[in-house]
Task: inverse folding
């Protein structure tokens, strides 16, 4: 929460300052420092400025860098005293890192701070300070740089805004008219804006006081008690008649009513109408009602491939549909007319996969490409909502890919009603969740059952940015390794985007029968990462499994043993979310 408070405050102040004086607007170094000290791996203007190189992110240091505090002047290893020449102020409670010359970083919290041999809570910039340090202090040398990675004063100020001590108050003007024998009248408005003025009038008459009378100071004291509201009174207009008296409790009730009316008046300009909850609930339940009369068709086998050799292997091995991306792979440019001929010869249908990231000009280019090549295709596999809207008038079946994240029957029904004839379900759905969708909407559903799932698409070439050379990515295979040692393959397309895949290959061959019984009409293999021979072998074994299940076989264990020679399930395979639902 402190991080959020600091960042929001800096940007709020900057935005307000810009609108006050756009021509002389600038961001101060102090503001940048506040953001650095909140948490920073280094800053970038990213894609906004067209960056696609190493400036886009921190490749070498993923943790907080902090800000340079100063340098070590001396170290007393025996007493644990560390001398610092400060370039910034330092407080007790701050956390620092010493970037030692040999051995990385040494992290410590400042618990004792001395200036001129006197204990202090704060040492100003430019001073020579001493802190007491534990740990491996023998690694520290004079001249080592010291960074602050936690600023206690900054965090305290942020926490104060969270608990409400520094809430921005709205100044208001309150008017009161209290005369003997008359109703009490109170009014309020935001200072300088009488358009939202509100008024309350008592349902009783002010009386003459017998033992005590009301003074102007009494009225101000009661009406000033605004508690946890956002208001503060900066202007008064009080009229109190001679000898008049009103019980303070009644005056407090009038004040509360006045402030409530002011809240309502100020919110009115936002034009929010009351939501008819019951009506919305009934409409939503009606939309979620399962459709009836759903009949499951013969399951199909679809295969994603990139190269001509892969297309030929999958077509000969039992695929019903092939999904191809002719503009994707750098190593294999393919001819769509040739692929169409190969598919036709084997009685296989061909769909063009469009990808999930398309800028405006790319959408226009893709539509032109499709218009020129529709004769070679049987369908379009669309993975971008904008392109989906653009291609619906091409008189071609449109399938939805898995990045569109169809997670429920409402979205599936929406896309079905708007023209999609096949919908690939999110790979994050478990079997029970799949059943709840396929049994509720009349449309052809597809599920991915094998292959490397893409977990991220980056607009830039990760290997080239990291290595500093655009020649790097085409020379080797790359992966990203996490802290647990899992390796995530990285592939670059012809537009220098990086596609990052899961570290484990999805393997659901033993579960083919369950998916078919669940109503999945299309079982999909992602085989573009495999060589043509493996594409053929893997396609063939899944073809056999589907045929066995549809013919009524309840046990496909002999096939599974055969498959283990082709797809060793103990080596980098996973069942994904098939048994682990995402909630």
Result:
């Amino acid at each position: 929460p402190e991080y959020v408070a600091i960042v929001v405050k800096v940007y709020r102040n900057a935005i307000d300052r810009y609108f006050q004086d756009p021509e002389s607007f600038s961001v101060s170094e102090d503001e940048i420092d506040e953001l650095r000290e909140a948490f920073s791996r280094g800053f970038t203007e990213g894609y906004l400025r067209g960056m696609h190189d190493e400036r886009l992110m921190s490749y070498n240091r993923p943790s907080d860098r902090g800000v340079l505090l100063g340098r070590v002047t001396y170290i007393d290893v025996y007493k644990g005293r560390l001398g610092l020449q400060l370039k910034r102020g330092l407080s007790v409670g701050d956390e620092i890192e010493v970037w030692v010359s040999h051995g990385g970083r040494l992290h410590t919290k400042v618990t004792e701070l001395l200036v001129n041999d006197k204990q202090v809570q704060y040492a100003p910039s430019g001073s020579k300070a001493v802190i007491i340090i534990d740990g491996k202090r023998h690694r520290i040398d004079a001249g080592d740089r010291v960074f602050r990675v936690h600023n206690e004063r900054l965090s305290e100020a942020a926490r104060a805004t969270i608990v409400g001590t520094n809430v921005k108050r709205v100044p208001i003007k309150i008017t009161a008219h209290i005369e003997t024998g008359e109703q009490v009248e109170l009014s309020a408005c935001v200072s300088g804006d009488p358009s939202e003025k509100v008024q309350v009038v008592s349902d009783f008459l002010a009386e003459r006081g017998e033992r005590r009378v009301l003074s102007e100071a009494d009225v101000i004291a009661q009406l000033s008690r605004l508690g946890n509201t956002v208001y503060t009174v900066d202007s008064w207009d009080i009229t109190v008649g001679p000898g008049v008296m009103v019980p303070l409790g009644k005056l407090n009730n009038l004040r509360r009513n006045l402030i409530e009316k002011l809240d309502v008046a100020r919110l009115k300009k936002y034009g929010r109408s009351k939501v008819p909850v019951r009506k919305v609930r009934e409409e939503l339940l009606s939309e979620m009602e399962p459709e009836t009369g759903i009949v499951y068709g013969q399951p199909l086998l679809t295969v994603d491939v990139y190269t001509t050799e892969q297309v030929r292997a999958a077509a000969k091995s039992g695929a019903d549909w092939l999904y191809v991306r002719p503009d994707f792979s750098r190593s294999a440019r393919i001819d769509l007319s040739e692929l169409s001929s190969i598919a036709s010869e084997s009685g296989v249908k061909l769909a063009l996969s469009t990808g999930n990231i398309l800028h405006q000009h790319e959408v226009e280019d893709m539509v032109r490409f499709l218009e020129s090549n529709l004769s070679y295709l049987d369908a379009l596999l669309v993975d971008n909502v904008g392109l989906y809207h653009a291609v619906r008038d091409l008189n071609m079946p449109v399938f939805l890919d898995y990045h569109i994240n169809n997670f429920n029957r409402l979205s599936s029904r929406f896309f079905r009603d708007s023209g999609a004839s096949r919908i690939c379900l999110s790979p994050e759905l478990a079997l029970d969740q799949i059943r709840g969708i396929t049994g509720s909407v009349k449309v052809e559903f597809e599920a991915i059952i094998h292959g490397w799932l893409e977990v991220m698409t980056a607009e830039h070439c990760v290997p080239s940015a990291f290595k500093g050379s655009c020649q790097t990515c085409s020379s080797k295979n790359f992966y990203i390794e996490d802290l647990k040692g899992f390796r995530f393959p990285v592939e670059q397309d012809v537009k220098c985007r990086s596609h990052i895949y899961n570290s484990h290959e999805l393997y659901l061959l033993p579960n083919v029968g369950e998916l078919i019984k669940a109503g999945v009409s299309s079982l999909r293999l992602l085989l573009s990462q495999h060589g043509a021979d493996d594409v053929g072998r893997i396609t063939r074994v899944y073809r056999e499994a589907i045929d066995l299940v549809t013919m009524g076989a309840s046990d496909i264990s002999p096939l599974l043993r055969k498959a283990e020679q082709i797809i060793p399930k103990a080596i980098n395979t996973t069942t994904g979310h098939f048994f682990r639902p995402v909630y």
